[in-house]
Amino acid sequence: MANLGKWNLSGVGLTTVLSTGLNSLTSGSMSAASSTYANQTNLDIYVDLEVNLASFSPATSPAPYVSIYILESVDGSNFPAQSAADLRLTTTQLFCSVPIGSTATTAQRVAVRNLIIPPGAVQFLLDNQTGAALAASGSTVKILPYNFNLNG
């Protein structure tokens, strides 16, 4: 009899990976790296990612967006140390780009699904390309890790 595959939520649950580092982050700037998320322990395969931007007024042109970069410590202790400019020049560390609506003075909550996360220690960064500074508080990036269970 064939196994039945089902999604399997990680025991970690919804995890905030970026918060206060986003406070008043100016357009064209990249946040500092998040605390380390220990996926070498969790060994999750996927994450859904939620970008929640507190009320602010993004520009309308060019189209506003934020990019999320992920840095993996391949050797278990050292993370890539690329500058923001270097990260933008390559897609090797780009996790996802998230379009942001240009409706004036509203909060934005956008989810990206089924992103593959590496099986090591990782850190996240947000690159603000919205044409405006983010709100002084209340913005977050969260991940919901999960796997695929072949035992049903």
Description of the molecule:
This protein has one domain. 7% of the residues lie in helices and 43% in strands. It has two helices and nine strands, in the order E-E-E-H-E-E-H-E-E-E-E. The strands form two sheets. Strands 1, 2, 4, 7 and 9 form a five-stranded antiparallel β-sheet that branches. It has a four-stranded antiparallel β-sheet with strand order 3-8-5-6. The chain is globular and about 50 Å long. The model has no long low-confidence stretch (mean pLDDT 92).
Quote the distance from N terminus to C terminus.
12 Å
Q: Mean pLDDT score, rounded?
A: 92
The SSE string, one letter per element, is EEEHEEHEEEE
The radius of gyration over CA amounts to: 16 Å
Shape assignment? globular
Number of domains: 1
How much of the sequence lies in strands comes to: 35-45%
- Can you summarize the main beta sheet? 5 strands, antiparallel
Percent helix = under 10%
Helix/strand-derived category reads mainly beta
Number of helices: 2
Question: Any low-confidence stretches, pLDDT <50, length ≥5?
Answer: none
Count of individual beta strands: 9
Entry keywords:
152 residues, mainly beta, 4-stranded antiparallel β-sheet
Topology diagram in text:
Blueprint: E1 6-9, E2 15-18, E3 37-38, H1 39-42, E4 46-56, E5 65-73, H2 84-89, E6 94-99, E7 106-116, E8 121-129, E9 140-149
Antiparallel strand pairs: 1-9, 2-9, 3-8, 4-7, 4-9, 5-6, 5-8
